[in-house]
Amino acid sequence: MKSNFSKRTQLQHVMENCLYYHHFQPIMDVYKYKTLGYESLLRSKHIDNPRSLFCEAINSDRLSELDISSIGMAIQSFNNQLDRITRDTHLFVNIYPSTLISQHFMRKLINIIESTLISPNRIVMEINESEQINNFSDLKDTVFQLKARGIKVALDDFDNGTAPFKKVIELEPNYIKFDKYFSENLTQSIKKQEILKSLLHYCSSNNIQTILEGIETDKDLSVAKSLGIDFGQGFLTGKPDLLDRLL
């Protein structure tokens, strides 16, 4: 009991004092080997697993607070290196659906962006698929408000269930990120290749660009390219690191 209490106290201390930073992982055009953008990934020297921080934020009803703070920090880090980043490079920032529809989220996000030199069309809000969406109508409205301001939207960790298809049809995302499940042993799995091929056909027909996560071998990258994946992300294309080290 004491150890659990101490762990929770430590997590709350990290949140309250913003004792975290970001690593960034490249997302690459698999044909031109050019960087589409970087996904920001929260890290902290004070905790072993960043997910535990988000779990504590959920348990203490502070998820939106942590989410928005993390997004602001990632955008500022990107802005600090802007003179070293090509104009068509995007920043992908993760966000939970409940944060998207939270009160004052849009105002706070716009204030963050306007405090930088970053054009809104270089920001991609990557919607976390791990959270249950209770108010899909509000989420849809917010997504269209983002897109109206030029901010792009990605659906993260897409799998082959029923709910993700509803989100794709209703939200009309700019990007879909296929979970690393699809890239694992992709060369050997004909079933995965067939499923990806059908999904990629839909995306291509509806002007949705696709990103395959978890690419770690040249063979799997080659198969992904043959199927028509637009972009790749994984240790093969670039490991997460501080942004200034990647540029």
For the biggest sheet, the summary is: 8 strands, mixed, barrel
Task: Give the CATH class.
Answer: Alpha Beta
CATH topology: TIM Barrel
For the record, the CATH architecture stands as: Alpha-Beta Barrel
Using the alpha-carbon principal axes, give the shape. Answer: globular
Number of strands: 8
Structural classification? alpha/beta
Total count of domains: 1
From the alpha-carbon coordinates, what is the Rg to the nearest angstrom? 18 Å
Order of helices and strands: HEEHHEHHEHEHEHHEHEH
The helix tally amounts to: 11
Strand order of the largest sheet: 1-2-3-4-5-6-7-8
CATH superfamily, called what?
A: EAL domain
Low-confidence stretches: none
- The whole-number mean of residue pLDDT values reads 93
Strand content: 15-25%
> What is the end-to-end distance?
45 Å
Helix percent reads 40-55%
Description:
- With 247 residues, the protein is an alpha/beta fold.
- The protein has a single domain (2-246), classed as Alpha-Beta Barrel (TIM Barrel), CATH 3.20.20.450.
- The protein contains eleven helices and eight strands.
- Strands 1-2-3-4-5-6-7-8 form an eight-stranded mixed barrel, surrounded by four helices.
Write a short abstract of this structure.
The protein contains 11 helices and 8 strands. The protein has an 8-stranded mixed barrel with strand order 1-2-3-4-5-6-7-8, surrounded by 4 helices.
